[in-house]
Amino acid sequence: MNNSRRRFRPRQKSNFRRRSNGVVHSNGHFQSNSGNNSFSRNGSMTNPFNIEKAIQKYKQLAKDALSSGDPILSENYLQHADHFSRKLSDLNYKSKEEMSSKVSEKESKGSVEQKKE
Fold it and tell me: What is the pTM of this model?
């Protein structure tokens, strides 16, 4: 009998498929084509409640950093909170804009139907 140990043989990755919206280059690094959208793959940053949670989280982290005596880290967290505040206001502006355009479309359709009668 052969007493030599069997070495681990990794399975081949020829049928390996990855879910991606970007390109895998020959060096194996993944590069996304969607800009910064890789951060919010599940759509979490389009939900205003999640953005508000992130704002509160960074404000609390800033408060904790300041109480531990690190004003630079506190400022960093406050900048993150400010970033998400701007994101939330932008999201609110877009939703108001969409709502107003839907209302104006309904009003214009209603006036066209009244003219037909």
Answer: 0.53
